[in-house]
Amino acid sequence: MNKTILVVLDACRPDALIQAHTPYLDSLWLTGAYTWTAQATVPSYTLPCHMSMFRGVPAAKHGVTGNTYSPSAQAYPSILEVAHAAGKHVAVFHSWEELRDLAAPGNVDLSYYRAYREDEDTDAIVARIAADYVIARQPDLTFLYLARPDYIGHLAGWMSPAYLAAIEQSDRDLGVLLERLTIAGIRDRFTLLILSDHGGHGHDHGSDLPEDLLIPWILNGPSIRRGYALTTPVRIYDTAATLAALLDLPVPPEWDGAPVREAWASPTEDTRP
Questions:
Q1: What pLDDT does 268 receive?
Q2: Number of domains the chain is built from
Q3: Which CATH number belongs to the domain containing residue 221 in this structure?
C-alpha cells in the first residue's frame, strides 16, 4: 500500500527554490516529477490556499478568503477526512494554529501543533517530531508544515538573502525526515508531495501577481516518473485529488481538482533510485 507525505514550505517561490542551495529538495525533483508553474488560489493567503489544497476547490467555492475560517468550507470534504473515513492512519504536524481547520475534529489520528516562535527553531523541532512519528508508526497520510520562509519573507522581503537562507534551512529540516526514512530502510514505502501554498513579493502576498501565485509542485516516489518536467497545468486544488489517487481513494464529486496522472510512471519505466 502506498503511503504519502505532504510537505508544505509556506511562501516558497519557485525561483527562490532554484536560486537557493537545497540539496534535499533538488534530489526530489531531479528524481521525481515537478513543475515550477503550479498555480495557487486567489486570494493568495495562507489559509485560503491550504483550504484549496486540502478541499479540492478554489477559494471562490470554499469561501475562505482570508486567514479566518469560514464554515462554508465544510461543503467540500478535506483529503484528511476522506482518508480517515477510509480507515487510513492520518498524522498532521504544524506550527500555525489556523491549520486546525483543515479537517473537522476527530478526523486525524495525531495532530501535533507547536506555535511558531522567534526565539527557537520551531520548524526544526516540528520536523524532528514528525520524523520520529513517521518512523515509528508509518502513517498512510502525513502532513508536515514548515512556516519559516513565510515568516522571513514578511520580515526581510521575498528574494532577500535572509529569505533564501530560510528556504535553505527548510531544506535541512526536510532532510532530517528523508535521512531518517533512508536509515530505517523504508524510504521506498513513501511518496512525497512537496509544494508551497503561495509565493510573495516585497514584504507581502495575497494578490494575483505571478510572484504570489506561482508555486513549486514536486512529486517523488516509487511509482513516479524520474526527472520529469510536467506539461499538465497544475492547480493547488489538484493536490487533494492527487493524494487521494496515491492512496487508492475515490475523488469526491465535490472537488474540482484532478489527479496529476502525468506524473505516474508507465509499467515499463525504471523508477529505481
A1: 62
A2: 1
A3: 3.40.720.10
